[in-house]
Every structure is written in C-alpha cells, then in structure tokens.
C-alpha cells in the first residue's frame, strides 16, 4: 500500500480522496453506511473484504463469459490515524487465473454520490448541534463551505468545542518575513468556543491550520477590505464581511464565555425567527457549564419567548413560568435579569412589561431574589415618567417590594415620600354609605391608612418609635378598638385613648359639673375655619358662597311665632349657661343673640337662627333636672356652641336640622342620611375633581396591595361616587340635569360646628352626652344605651343592613378624630392662653 501511495501522483488524483475523523473513530464504522447506500442504488451484489487498516467494497460487478473476466469498481477505505483514504479503482479479474488488473477509476471520486454520502455521515457524527443549525438558517457569520473543508474542521475539534464562525479572508502574510505560506492557498478564518485559527486549503488538497488563539487582534478600517493584524500574521477581510469581524471582536477577546457572548450577538442581530432564537438558546445552554451558569441558563429559557426582543402581551404566563423557576432557585436572579436586559438592549417599555410580569414574585418568598431588577428599573422610571398617578402606583409597588425583601430603611423612606404625595382624601369621611361600618374601620381615608400601616410594620422591624404613626392611624380610625388600644400604650396619648374607650363601652355617660372658665381669648374666624374645615373644601372656590345662596332661599322659623310662647333665658333663671354663652360669643367675636327657652315642638331642640335679631333657643328638657335629657352645663355648652358656631361661620341662618326641614318645604326630597342631590350654583369643581382623583388612587391601592380589607373597606366611596356621578369629567351623561352635584351641606356644617363646640366644652364625654341627648329619638333609644352600651347602640342596623344611626357615627368619628389631633391642642392653646 505504501508503494501505491508513493505512486499515486502518477495516477489520476481524482480517484483518491480523504475523510477526516476524530480520535477513536474506526474505519470499519463506515461499512454499514456504505453498504446500505449501494444496496439502495445498485442492482448487483456487493463484496466486502477486510484488509490491513481498512476494508474494500466491490460494486457494479459484471461477468463477461466470452472474455472470461469479471469487471468491478473497487473502493478501498484505509485509515491512517485520523484520516481515512478512499481510493477508487477499476478491477478486472481473469476467471482462469484470478489475476487482478487494476487501474484508476474513470470518475471524479469527490463528486460521487456515495462519497458525498460518507462525508455527510461523518459530519452528522461530528455535528456539535450548533454549526449545522446555523448553516441551515444561513447566518452571515458562517460562510458556505464544501463538505471536505467542513469535515476537516470538525475533525479538528476538541471535546466540547463548538464552531461559531467561519469567514472568508485573503492575503494572509506572516510577520516573520523569512517564512512563506504556500501560494494559491484559499483561506478561512475559524472561530470556535475555545480557539481561533486560520484554515488554509492548498491546491493539492492538503489543509494548513494556523492557531492564533492566544494572540491579540487589531482591526484597521480600510476602504473595501479591512486589515486585521495579530502577533504572528495579518490578513484582509473580504469586501462584504468586514463589519462581521467588528461584531465578533468581543468573542475574540474572551476565552471563558465565548458561547454566551456569541449568543448575545445573535440575539441582537437575529431575533425575528424562532429558529434563530432556538439557536441562541442552544448557545446559552452549552455555555451554562461555566461560572456564568445561572445567567446563561436564564438566557437559554428566556430568549425563545422574546421574539423581536418584545414581550408578548397576550402570553405573559409563559414568561412568568420561566421567571418563577429561576427566581425560586437563585438569589442572583435579579442581577442576572439586569445583565440580560443590558446585553440584549431591551427597550424601556419592554423592561416595564417584564417588571409587570414579575409582580407576583414580589412576595416575601422571592422578594429578595427579584428586588435588584426593580431597583434597576426604578432609576429608568424616575427619568421617564412624570404623571402623578403613574408615579404613585409605581412607588407603592416598589415600596412594598422593598419591604418584602427586608430593605426596610429604603422602604420606609419611600413610603414617607408616597404619604406626602397622597391626594387630599378628607372628603371621603363625609361620604360613607349607610352600610359602611365605620366602627370596624371601613370607609374613611383608606389611602392614608394603607400607607401608614405599611410604615408601622416597618418601624416595628427597625425597632423605631411608632407612637407618631399609631397616633396618625388612631386619628383616621378613632372608633376602631385596635387603633385606640394601641394608642393607649403610649403615655402621651394614654388619657385621651382611655376616654374614647370609656365612651364606647359606657352604658350611662355620667358627666360631672366641672369648673367653668369664661376667660377665653378671641379666635380669628379665618384661622379657625382653616383648621376645622376639611382641607378639600378650603380651596373650593365659591363653595360657601353657593351654600349661603342656597340657605338664604329657605324660610327660617318665624321669630314672632317662636318668642310668643317662649320664656327668656337670662342670668336670673340660668346664670351658668348665660355666662357661658356670653363668653363663647366674646371668643367668636359675634353679638350675644337673644336667648329663649324652647317649649312644645322646640322643647327637645337647641336652635340658633342668624337674622335680625339673631336668636338662640334651648329646649326646656335640657334645662330641667327631672328630664331624661337634662344636661349639666358642660354638655349643654357643647350643644349651644354648635349653634353659635353656625352663626359664627355665617354659613347658615338656621341649624342643619331646619335647613333640611326648609328644603323639604321647598319640594326637595330629604334623604334619610341627609345626603341629597340638589342644583348647585358656583364653582366647586375642585372638590368633585378631587373625588374623582381619590377614586382613581383608591383603585390603584386595590390593584397594588391586593388586600381584601382595602377593597372592602374602601368600597363605600366607590358606591357613592357612582350613585351621585361625582366625577364631573365622566363620560356618563345619563343624569337628567348635568348641573346636579352632591351637596354635602348637612355633614359639613355639623362636623365643623362640632369641632368648635368641642373646644369650648373641652370634655369629650360631655360632648358625646350632648350629641346623644340631642337626638329626636333619645327617649326610646335611652333604654338600649343603658342596657347594651353606646357602641352597641351605634352598631344597630335595619333589615337591609344599613346603620340606623350612621349620621351620629359620622359626627362622633369626626369629633373623636379632632379630639385626638394636634390641631385640637393648638386651638385650645389659642382659646385658653392669655
């Protein structure tokens, strides 16, 4: 055989070819594919014979009886290390002597179907499941090569080495001028996961490999072809592939993460087809055996779901499955996700979608693993978004996530920022439905409550002083036992908390005669109004003017008719209350009205009327010690001060009770809860626009927190806004009169006057006693209070689940909140300090 090879140059070189195989491959493994091929393509029998270092196959066997010879085509497959030589011969066998006559076959071996079949067979065995797929998808980083060159490249690969790029080059020159490369060699640049080398194919079909893996690269832009220089050689790119070298430069410069880096390059360049995404995924899977295991595993799972690097909004559940799988398993999930969006250059809006999908993973079990990405996106968000409610919702989500990930200091700082940015929702205290359970904390300012509760929990984790937060929560929910019980644990507020506890549990509100002081300081109306009126009304231009216009149209009780059957209240018959009335009028800077003792219809009422003259009527039952309604001077002071406050603020000519009586006389419907819809003149858009804002923010709270009590406790405001069409910007025009809006007159007047009256009584128990005794149904309700207590009395509902005394609860809640507030103490100092 050696002689044959030495003499092969004299033969037709087209009948000799090489197959390149890997270490451990045996030439005999070619028998089956070769025989199988011929069995399907040839009609004659095959003869297979084992020879030294290989085997032969005789095919196309024919017998010529006349000449006495057998003619056949013989293929020899002989292995020399990792090269298998295939030799094609034409053989004639003399039947008489069995002497063989051989000559070179008369065909080009490399073009034969069986040889191409063998090359393809070997490529499949050597296939790294990466390069072949890339060839199928025709990516620009891989030039189309003949099978022989492909076969040679693959037999050069080491264990777990994968082909990434094969590009054409020209004019290869060695830096050592004394060395020359064979002329007329065609060259290719080959990049694998482990090495970089140049592959040269010499005209005599030999291959030349120059390994430049450890060398540095310099790319020099030229017109047309670019020049690439390494430590040992230089070469030029081809005209159309110069940019590709610039793109793969990061891979060339890296030795440990080439598959992953190349995968990122493919992701950015080819992300429109699923096949390309699967290819990138395969690259990341193969790379995941390195130190970047977790990152590349995540990339491998993620990229097939990001066609065109966009989140499919209709199929977020598949992304969530991937995120859940990795977030549950790895603490570095968030950091890896940041690297991915940066590597793949995902847009701001796609990252925003990713964050939204991640929201279920903000729970405590995975919060620490996902917070890094939220923190990363926060920096982008604050630069992009300016709309208040969008910022509010994002911050709320982020603060909750920080809290769950035990980043308590950052969380509470953000919660404080959120709290300061909350819309004014004080108006919702006036708007509970009759089924809203204020005693259990429903209704009211749930926006603030939600934030404060979160802050309180964090403060406990940080062992911070919680007294201020507990105080704020008690002011917002002063009838909720949990709030008042917590407040009672703090010395500064202990006495007031105890007072509220005693009031709610009392069956008989015993109030004692207290020392009365008439030494009040004058109060400036504008300053007092600012402190006692809900802030949502303070900036409502025209509200009180409109209110005055409405009330002015009502008919007050006839002065002459009232005094005709009433006795004067004076210093002789009731000196204590007259002294108190005089002192209060001095403080309020109003004239002392004429005072009368009401009888008959007015025996159970305290009524103040602003007019010419203004007068005050106190029902005889409050003054008679034998009456169930009798009040000691401090409790009676509270009821009197309410009426004087109405006059003081000039927002009524009669008390709210008679406002609605007068409204009824004018043909308006009086709603049981004293809340009705009336034509309203004047600009109060600021109020109702604010309600719409609160409704919007309330829905955000529900969406972000996903806490049942928020949705349930805040639903009253939603019901009321829908019922009365509070949003003036609503597209719903179903109401007959577009000018109709909600008139909260009764409640507003009462709670403002209640607060001022409490300042003068300075006794919450006395004030509550006055409120109860002033009810028109006090005689029949008193036994219920005596038997079951104040709270049980207030908690009574009718057959439809409505609270029977909801108006009283609203007033009591407002008064207790004011009593606990810092504003109460500030105004008291102004009133009592000389």
UniProtKB/TrEMBL annotation:
It comes from the Bacteria. This is Peptidase M48 domain-containing protein. It comes from Kordia aestuariivivens.
